[in-house]
Amino acid sequence: MQRLRLIFQLAVVAAALTAGVRFALGRSLVSVETYCPFGGLETAYSFFTRRQFSCSAGEANLALFIALLVLTLVARKAFCSWVCPVGTLFEWEARLARRLFRRHDFAGRWPLAPRVDRALKVGLRLLVLAVILAATWTTGELVFRGYDPYYIAFSAHGHDVQSWSYAVLGGLLLLGLALPLAWCKYLCPLGVVLWPLSRGGALRLARSSHHCTGCGACDRACPQDLRISAADQVRSGECTLCLACTAACPSPQALELVWPRVGSNRGPR
Amino acid sequence: MKAPAWLVPVLVVLCAVAGVIGSRLAMAPSLVEVFAEASPNAEPRRSVFVVRGVRCVDTAEMAARQLAGIDGVQRLEAFASRARLDVTYDPARVDAAALREAFEGPVHDANSGEYLFDLFEVIEMDGVKIESGREPESP
Q1: Lower CB count within 10 Å: N or C terminus of chain A?
Q2: pLDDT tens digits for range A72-109
Q3: What's residue A263's pLDDT?
């Protein structure tokens, strides 16, 4: 399954790069922004109040955003680990950092205290989201473009990308070396929109205490650094159903994907 | 109840397909510009242009300004994400070729006052692709 996920990630990254280069060369009229579901949220206010789209956002953004909400209600944040090219970049970087720094998990070199980690995951991402939506909804412009790692990385030096945009991307990548998936965990505005839906997502991972050997391989394999071995079911809104934990688990049937069951213990948040 | 692991990629693909299909159902313009009301006896015509250079509301507004002052143009709807401009006009007073010429003419930048050349290029007109610098092929 991890090989299939890698194929998905490679295909999306390749498609986004191709779309960006083709648009930059004038061979296509469809820019990489067209496929960004966050653009759907940015333009939602304009669409529902005036029946018009903001800036370069269009119906594809809105439809993909709605489809993403439905996906999250069923398969949690699967989008982040199976589709999102920015998530892919930061996950690959986290894997590289793990090898470079010879670590066994994704906690990073300087892991944050759980309380700080939780506060940043919610507070900082909500702040980023509020600033972007307020700016977009009042100006009608996609003001975030120059700071958006997706647009900077895949638009082939698109409109609004300045030299400092690359510095922003470089800074985020540097931050990602110290704090794995720093963008996804602490800054991604789409991530915080999906988070409450993901918490209630239907599909989840269940750990069988009967089969589990308590080796902790699942904890170490989780890119989101969730404590899977401490719960009967993973209910965290941050679980991306990447299934790296099930692939790493040495005990068959110890960790499986299930539909919700009533009366199970609370999982990691 | 157990669920197979392959369900996750299948759901991802299904939602992506649903998103693409859904985008066909929610078409709305990025900009609507009304130039003149239709005269009671006229039978307005609507032409669809795909214009390279139209990529956002700002560029759509520039394209709309190209039509300002042209007799017979009634309404423009811009779909920026598709680089598409739908123009409603009175065919007795103006034709689609003149509209194309207006789009492709030098663009006056309202902010800098400069004239910009080759900003817009009509690459499709009423469903007919246009070779660069050539007239549309007859259907």
Answers
A1: C
A2: 999 999 999 999 999 999 999 999 988 888 888 887 77
A3: 52
Residue A67 has its nearest CB partner, among B22, B56, B123, at B22
Q: Are A5 and A243 in contact (CB under 8 A)?
A: yes
A256 CA to chain B: closest CA distance, Å? 7
Q: Does B3 touch chain A (CB under 8 A)?
A: yes
**Which domains can be identified in chain A, with CATH numbers?**
2-197 (no CATH), 203-258 (3.30.70)
Sort out which chain A residues have CB atoms less than 8 A from B30's CB and list them.
52-58
pLDDT tens track for B93-129: 899 999 999 998 888 777 777 887 878 889 888 888 8
The structural domains of chain B, with segments of one domain joined by +, span 31-127
Q: Alpha-carbon distance B32 to B96, whole Å?
A: 19
Q: Kindly identify which residue of chain B lies nearest to residue A51, measuring between CA atoms.
A: B28
* CA-closest candidate to residue A223, choices A118, A126, A110, A105: A105
CB neighbours of residue A198 within 10 Å: 26
pLDDT at A197: 93
Distance from CA of A252 to the nearest CA of B (A): 13
The label of the residue with tokens 């692991």 reads: B5
Angle, CA of B51, B44 and B31, to the nearest 5°: 40
Question: Which of A51, A67, A159 has the CB atom closest to B19's CB atom?
Answer: A67
Class of domain B31-127: alpha beta
